[in-house]
Design a protein that fits this description.
The complex is a heterodimer of chains A (about 240) and B (about 300). With about 240 residues, chain A is mostly helical. In chain A, helix 3 runs antiparallel to helix 5 and helix 6 packs antiparallel against helix 9. Chain A has one domain. In chain A, about 50% of the residues are buried. Chain B has two domains: about 210 residues, P-loop containing nucleotide triphosphate hydrolases (Rossmann fold, 3-Layer(aba) Sandwich); about 60 residues, Alpha-Beta Plaits. Chain B has eleven helices and 14 strands. In chain B, helix 6 links the parallel strand 7 and strand 8. In chain B, helix 5 runs parallel beside helix 6. Classes of the chains: A mainly alpha (about 240), B alpha/beta (about 300).
């Protein structure tokens, strides 16, 4: 009930903030359109584009919300209410995931028009999208709370997000890179998201089997949730 | 209702609040005065569970602030020194949201909006600063708490809005609520609190009722004296009373009023002037505040740069 109240409030308050719109909606859609315009047939790129949409949608929304709430001290409204740290973090992660899911579904509708093959398993794609959005949202919440000066949150997020686009195999297959590059990819949730979505969309994967991708995304979601709760306790 | 025992907050090597102890009785307005950076806000943040306590104990409405945070949170309403509701939500939506968080009856929202004459359908971000503060105070009442913390409630408000907020505070107290009011506004300090504590550099330097606080400067009486013609020789003659000008009158600090009157009569005879006005008054809370915080009144800087003191 309290978690749902926070989710509704967040959507009303932050959905149209510039940070959510520019980095969270416009950037992933324009990025996808650029690839469509350049290549036309983009089947092999679609898992990466969906994952990029989810990553930027979720993290931009939660960062925008947390930056505003920390600076305007509305975060303290939540902390003063009889709501646990866990409920606050869960609400923030869920609302980020909902926004990210909307952005990634819009991207899916857009890019599916340019697929040569049809989607292999839509339910599996939706499942991977949900798990990816939860893991990315939790990562975004953690980064937004772990950075002591809220003004720097977006910069730090980009420092993490932009390299992840390459280390995850979203743009180019990880099999084309040296082994050490794969190790870097394995520590970020996006790699599992891209390979899981690739399996759901195209019925093959690059390096990580589908079940392992699923488990890794769940574990990363839980890990970043716990880290976010710890960061919130440290911050206040 | 509120009790602090040896309450301490440290940020690294910096001590923001240094072993302060006090009790606030039920139904009391307790004024917590201090210059900027004295530790007022840190104290409120500790008592309201927003900041951890480094050492000492605190109880609010019988709940241990360290161990029974939920009990404390349900017992208090906090009005911070900023008006921090959600800009894109209307006043009513803000209150409904908070009512859900506090599991307060939904009818509280419409009652508060009516009682405090708030523009329910207006977005919070579009309100004037006075109405924003009014809405922030009302937001703290959504769950009908017995204790209200008000941190600099009239800061940055115009005269009219500040008066409106002071009237709200009085009304809340008349309704039976215990109020912990931090301020460095002397109008508030002179008129609102039943008891006052003055904090400086993290330590309580004075505490008591308003008249007790005034008496802290000894039995000193302020004498306002207007004479014609005003001569330099008169100022020299009254030097031991630390003469100062306020508007067109001389203000003197007098310990023994009878001896002073005798001396003034003697000086009058000697220098030849006419007394146009003469009045006496006890020192104000402001006088005591300045006296107790004057030497160390400059703002403190904290090494960490992030302390909300």
């Amino acid at each position: 009930m309290k978690v749902w109240a926070i989710i509704v409030k967040e959507l009303r308050e932050y959905m149209l903030k510039p940070g959510s719109i520019s980095w969270g909606l416009v950037f992933p859609l324009v990025f996808s359109l650029a690839f469509i315009a350049r290549f036309g047939d983009i089947d092999h790129l679609i898992p990466g584009l969906l994952s990029i949409s989810a990553l930027f949608g979720t993290t931009s929304f939660v960062a925008s919300s947390i930056i505003f709430e920390r600076r305007l001290r509305t975060f303290e409204r939540l902390l003063l209410a009889p709501v646990s740290y866990g409920e606050i973090i869960l609400a923030k992660v869920l609302v980020g995931a909902i926004f990210g899911l909307l952005v990634s579904l819009v991207t899916l509708v857009l890019v599916s028009h340019f697929m040569a093959y049809s989607i292999w398993s839509l339910p599996l794609v939706l499942l991977y999208l949900i798990l990816s959005n939860l893991a990315f949202s939790a990562l975004g919440v953690y980064v937004s709370l772990a950075i002591s000066n809220s003004i720097n949150v977006m910069t730090w997020l980009n420092l993490i997000r932009l390299p992840m686009m390459f280390t995850s195999g979203a743009i180019a297959s990880l099999t084309l890179f040296p082994r050490w590059f794969l190790v870097v990819g394995l520590i970020t949730p996006m790699t599992y998201s891209v390979d899981g979505l690739r399996y759901g969309l195209l019925y093959y994967y690059d390096v990580i089997p589908p079940l392992e991708s699923m488990l890794a995304l769940v574990l990363m979601f839980l890990l970043f949730m716990l880290l976010s709760i710890r960061a919130l306790k440290k911050l206040y | 209702m509120i009790e602090a025992r040896e309450l301490t907050k440290r940020y690294g090597d910096f001590t923001a609040v240094d072993r302060i102890s006090f009790k606030v009785k039920k139904g009391e307005i307790f004024g917590f005065l201090g210059p900027n950076g004295a530790g007022k806000t840190t104290t409120v943040r500790m008592l309201s569970t927003l900041t951890s306590i480094t050492e000492g104990e605190a109880y609010v409405n019988g709940y241990d602030v360290r161990r029974e945070k939920v009990g404390v949170k349900k017992s208090i309403g906090v009005v911070q020194d900023v008006s921090n509701l959600y800009d894109e939500l209307t006043v009513e939506e803000n209150l409904r949201f908070l009512a859900r968080l506090y599991e307060a009856p939904p009818e509280n929202v419409s009652k508060l909006i009516k009682d405090f004459n708030l523009p329910a359908r207006k977005k919070f971000g579009k309100l004037s600063s006075g109405y924003k503060r009014r809405a922030s105070i009302v937001a703290a009442l959504i769950h009908d708490p017995p204790v209200i913390f008000l941190d600099e409630p009239t800061i940055a408000l115009d005269v009219k809005s500040a008066r409106m907020v002071r009237e709200m505070i009085r009304a809340l107290n008349v309704a039976g609520r215990t109020i912990f009011l931090t301020t460095h506004n002397m109008v508030e300090a002179e008129t609102l609190p039943h008891r006052i504590a003055i904090i400086n550099r993290g330590k309580i330097v004075a505490m008591g009722g308003r008249s007790e606080i005034r008496r802290l400067l000894g039995s000193e009486t302020r004498v306002r004296l207007k004479v014609e013609p005003l001569k330099t020789s008169l100022i020299h003659a009254l030097e031991e009373y630390s003469p100062a000008f306020e508007e067109d009158a001389l203000v003197l600090k007098v310990k023994d009023i009878d001896a002073f009157m005798d001396e003034l009569a003697e000086i009058k005879g000697r220098l030849g002037f006419r007394i146009v006005h003469l009045s006496t008054e006890l020192p104000s809370i402001e006088d005591v505040f300045l006296e107790l915080t004057e030497e160390e009144g400059e703002e403190r800087g904290c090494a960490c740069g992030g302390c909300p003191i």
